[in-house]
């Protein structure tokens, strides 16, 4: 039986006299009341669908472990998520069909009198009434039965999932044979398109869930903090590119092709580095990479007359968009240092194996590192009036700021220096001030036309999400040791 035939049956029923009089008005109102209850039921199924899909599984499991019975029901529903979602879709379909069957003719009956009073031809009144009834029913259905529960579930997934999981599970269990039959039919149709369906959604946890698990395990003491940090940083590598871990060109030590082998030795003494890019006319024209051992291999009396370009080897060039996992593979199998090239063909910076290792384990120092190079990119300080403050290097990446509860606006920048320049709208100068909600930003040192040292002072008491504050990876620079990161996290808590 089709919805249109159902509608005709309801319209015929509406024409029957209601016992005791008043049937022409009372019956449509009762049907509209029933339709509204079905719209609420539709909203329940929509909330169940979005709540179960968006809920954070680790949060639900943690609440269940603490004795929350409703959370345990949520966890059980998540174990057969595909089946539960099919149940919500069946509920949405049934309620939507019945709402249309009841509401449209009821609206048409109620609107018949007003439409006739407007002078509309008698033959057109039923059709116009049905159209208006359909529009009104659809509007109420969309707002009350779809958008409101969807937005509620997306905003508070765990709260909604706890509320709906029990009733939804009972509904799905009651109609299990019907749901299984419909799923079987759907799977057969999907196979016609060459796609092999799966009975359940992927059970593997997302990187975000794994980060959340590591963070909560560290807080509970079941996982060492250092191990948790290493785990989080390892997961973060998947989203990083060469641009995120490289040393920017303004900090690159390089040699002109006319420099000598003796210049290589002198630059090594000055910087503690052993490999340098060699360029032709400008840093954007890198023609090779020279190593300290190649300069030492030149006889001492020949070093002043041997150009660095003649002892350099062909450079490894990589795009700045190259994912870190692919970059690591090339650095291991080709050269331990690469020149990062931007989209315009210029030199964006250089990257080494050590840069990637430090992204995982923090600052790696040796006897050749310059004194003071282990200063953290973000360190606690004391602001005016004793307010909490943090000093940040200009190269400190934006995700690191979220550890202290600071959420910068989206913009065309990736570092603190870029954030400051964007807020000021010009090249910064020492003493410049800027503001973000709850924070005052002061520029302490400038170099190479960019902010090199910036202080962030808290002017209010923000309420950052602890999940955001604690589960982010270390910044990509070469100066952040684990100890400072741990101290910073403790201070932020």
UniProtKB/TrEMBL annotation:
Mode of membrane association: Multi-pass membrane protein
Protein name: Integral membrane protein
Keyword Cell membrane recorded: yes
Source domain of life: Bacteria
Compositionally biased residues, Basic and acidic residues: 365-377
Keywords, comma-separated and alphabetical: CBS domain, Cell membrane, Membrane, Repeat, Transmembrane, Transmembrane helix
CC annotations in GO: plasma membrane
Every CBS domain range: 246-306, 311-367
Family (UniProt): Belongs to the UPF0053 family.
GO terms for MF: flavin adenine dinucleotide binding
Pfam families reported in the protein's UniProt record: CBS, CNNM, CorC_HlyC
Compartments reported by the entry: Cell membrane
Domain CNNM transmembrane: 24-227
Region (Disordered): 365-393, 460-482
This protein's record includes keyword Protein transport: no
């Amino acid at each position: 039986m089709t919805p249109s035939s159902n509608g005709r049956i309801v319209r015929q029923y509406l024409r029957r006299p209601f016992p005791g009089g008043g049937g022409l008005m009372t019956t449509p109102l009762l049907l509209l009341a029933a339709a509204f209850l079905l719209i609420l039921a539709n909203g329940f199924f929509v909330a169940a669908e979005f709540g179960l899909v968006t809920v954070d599984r680790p949060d639900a499991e943690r609440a269940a472990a603490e004795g929350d019975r409703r959370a345990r029901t949520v966890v059980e529903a998540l174990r057969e998520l595909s089946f539960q979602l099919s149940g919500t879709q069946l509920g949405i379909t049934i309620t939507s069909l019945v709402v249309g069957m009841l509401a449209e003719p009821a609206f048409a009956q109620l609107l018949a009198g007003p439409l006739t009073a407007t002078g509309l031809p008698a033959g057109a009144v039923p059709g116009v009434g049905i159209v208006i009834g359909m529009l009104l029913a659809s509007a109420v259905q969309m707002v009350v039965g779809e958008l409101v529960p969807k937005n509620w579930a997306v905003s508070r997934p765990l709260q909604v999932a706890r509320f709906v999981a029990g009733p939804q599970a009972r509904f799905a269990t009651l109609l299990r044979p019907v749901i299984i039959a419909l799923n079987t039919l759907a799977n057969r149709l999907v196979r016609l398109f060459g796609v092999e369906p799966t009975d359940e959604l992927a059970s593997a946890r997302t990187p975000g869930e794994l980060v959340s698990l590591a963070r909560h395990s560290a807080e509970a003491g079941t996982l060492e903090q250092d191990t948790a940090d290493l785990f989080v940083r390892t997961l973060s590598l998947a989203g990083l590119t060469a641009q995120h871990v490289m040393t920017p060109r303004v900090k690159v030590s390089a040699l002109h092709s006319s420099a000598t082998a003796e210049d290589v030795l002198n630059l090594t003494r000055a910087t503690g580095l052993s490999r340098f890019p060699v360029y032709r006319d400008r840093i954007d024209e890198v023609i090779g990479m020279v190593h300290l051992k190649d300069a030492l291999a030149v006889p001492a009396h020949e070093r002043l007359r041997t150009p660095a370009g003649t002892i350099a080897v062909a450079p490894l060039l990589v795009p700045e968009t190259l994912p870190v996992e692919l970059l690591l593979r090339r650095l291991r199998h080709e050269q331990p240092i690469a020149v990062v090239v931007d989209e315009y063909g210029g030199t964006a910076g250089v990257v080494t194996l050590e840069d990637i290792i430090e992204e995982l384990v923090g600052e790696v120092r040796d006897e050749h590192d310059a004194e003071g190079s282990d200063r953290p990119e973000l360190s606690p300080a004391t602001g005016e009036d004793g307010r909490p403050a943090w000093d940040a290097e200009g190269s400190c990446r934006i995700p690191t700021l979220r550890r202290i509860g600071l959420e910068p606006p989206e913009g065309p920048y990736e570092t603190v220096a870029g954030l400051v320049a964007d807020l000021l709208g010009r090249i910064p100068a020492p003493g410049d001030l800027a503001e973000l909600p709850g924070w005052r930003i002061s520029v302490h040192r400038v170099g190479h036309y960019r902010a090199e040292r910036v202080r962030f002072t808290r002017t209010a008491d923000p309420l950052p999400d602890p999940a955001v504050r604690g589960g982010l990876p270390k910044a990509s620079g070469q100066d952040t040791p684990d100890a400072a990161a741990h101290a910073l996290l403790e201070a932020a808590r």
